[in-house]
Structure to design on (153 residues):
């Protein structure tokens, strides 16, 4: 992906230089290079012919697809933000996706801390479990594991 000949759109040399720069400072940039190659094919398919990154092109590329998760879309937005900043640094007109425009992809994880009574109830159920003919190993294994976890904690 380091040569210009794999890119087919007018933005190809800019994309190749961005990838070379990122690799030059130590990033592997393999996944990103594949994503930029897809963007390059997209630019060629829609007939983009200028050395610029207009807002309409970016929004069209980053529009949510039916088959994808929001996380994948956020990756595309991030790539466009990197490309836009790079193009601006190089003197090309480019629209950069504002940071606050992107949705939060995940809420902050809040762990549940079991109370003493909840733990006691859990262990009572585990200790009182009856043998099942389909899994005799589980009958002694689960209480042993949970007792070990309790001792370790």
């Amino acid at each position: 992906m380091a040569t210009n000949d794999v890119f087919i759109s007018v933005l190809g040399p800019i994309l190749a230089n961005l990838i070379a720069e990122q690799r030059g400072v130590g990033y592997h940039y393999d996944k990103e290079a594949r994503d930029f190659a897809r963007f390059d094919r997209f630019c060629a398919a829609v007939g983009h012919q200028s050395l610029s990154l207009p807002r309409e092109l970016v929004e069209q590329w980053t529009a949510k697809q039916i088959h994808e998760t929001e996380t994948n879309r956020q990756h595309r937005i991030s790539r466009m933000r990197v490309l836009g900043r790079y193009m601006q640094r190089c003197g090309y007109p480019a629209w950069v996706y504002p940071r606050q425009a992107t949705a939060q992809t995940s809420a902050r994880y809040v762990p549940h801390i079991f109370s003493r009574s909840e733990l006691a109830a859990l262990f009572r159920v585990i200790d009182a479990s009856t043998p099942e003919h389909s899994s005799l190993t589980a009958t002694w294994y689960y209480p042993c594991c949970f007792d070990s976890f309790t001792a370790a904690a």
About this structure: The chain has two domains: 4-101, 116-152.
